[in-house]
Hints:
Strand content: 15-25%
Number of helices: 7
Oligomer: single chain
Strand order of the largest sheet: 6-7-8-3-9
Protein name: Heme exporter protein A
Domain ABC transporter: 7-224
Helix content: 25-40%
GO molecular function, one term: transmembrane transporter activity
Structural class: alpha/beta
Keywords: ATP-binding, Cytochrome c-type biogenesis, Membrane, Nucleotide-binding, Translocase, Transport
Organism: Nitrospirillum iridis
Number of strands: 9
Amino acid sequence: MTSPPHFTGRDLLCLRGGRLVFQDLDFTLAPGGCLTLVGPNGSGKSTLLRLMAALLKPLRGTIAWDGVALAQDPEAHRARLHYVGHLDAVKASFTCREILSFWAGVRGVADRAAVDRALAAFAIDTIADVPGRFLSAGQRRRLSLARLVAAPAPLWLLDEPTVGLDRASVALLEGAIAHHRAGGGRVVLSTHIDLATPDGAVLDLAAFAPRGDEDDGDVAEDAA
């Protein structure tokens, strides 16, 4: 029997803006798994998520899906994930339903029922026909997260997804994550609050902080 694909990172080293962010970082994420990234500001949580999304490349090391490095086919990898960053992709003149229908269409999903499920999953079904310009910050955030449900993808990469959410909305997000994982989906997220992710793993990026000038010299030599 073929084993399910794993999402892995090995010996990762990242340099941003001339600064070594983290080094010697490894991770493994199996189907149904959740990896929570923690660490102080500047420790590289957002950077690691962008590496995982193939939006950036590590200076050293390899990120792979089922043993195949992302660098070999980054577009194929991006097609299997949702990346939700700090900005909400909400167009002011489009309604909530239109925005979700657009994102679903991008993924090849032309199912009104899928959009309805996404609206209900984040309790924005009552404002489905309200244009983006009239939404509160919390409503905009829930709409941005609802595309996770409207157009399924096996890997969710979520950068501070709870920003702007009240406790009830955080509970909706926890429910969506649990449902996704129950179907074999994977989640990597960064957060500064306690988010319920039963049996999930935690990766503290502070443990992979640069060790000193000696390592910086090695990095400079690699980058040359």
